[in-house]
Amino acid sequence: MSRLSVPVPAKVWERTSEEIYIISRTNDVNNTKIRDGKMDIKTFVQEVDGLEQWNPLMKGEFPMKAEMLEKEVFPAFQVQMPSLEKDVYTLDEFLEIVKNHPDLLAVSVEKERFGYMVNDTICEYANVWINGAMVVTVNSESTEIEDIKKTIKDLGLEGVENINYLQAAKRVVGMIDKKLAN
Asked: What is the CATH number of the domain that holds 96?
């Protein structure tokens, strides 16, 4: 990837982050992560030729109002709504609700990402630790499907399964009985 890349801004050369993904036994279409006290939910739009399109569904920050949890967050998990006793919840209080919910799990995700630009697609190679299990990932993002397909071919990744972080986390923690991609 680095050999194929055009120069990219220094701010994307190398980035690290610590995140918490909230995974649900009953949901495979909404991807929820928390980073730096901010929640980001993306929703699956469509799959074309094995490539996935996701769009933002919700952005929020902790402390978070119970109303937002009731109307946006828990419906995205597609689980039974727990009873909320307070008007506002801190991140720790929210994570305690998740911990006590039978269909939800908070998963620690640490990422060490390296950014590139190949065939006019935004690319990334990453070392990712999902609850301590190391996974190596590669991605290519663009609105132009043919550019992504060319990048996949140029990287020698044709035939490699394409899965998202939500599916990878579910596989690592055993919520899905399937091995990770090849």
From this structure: 2.40.320.10
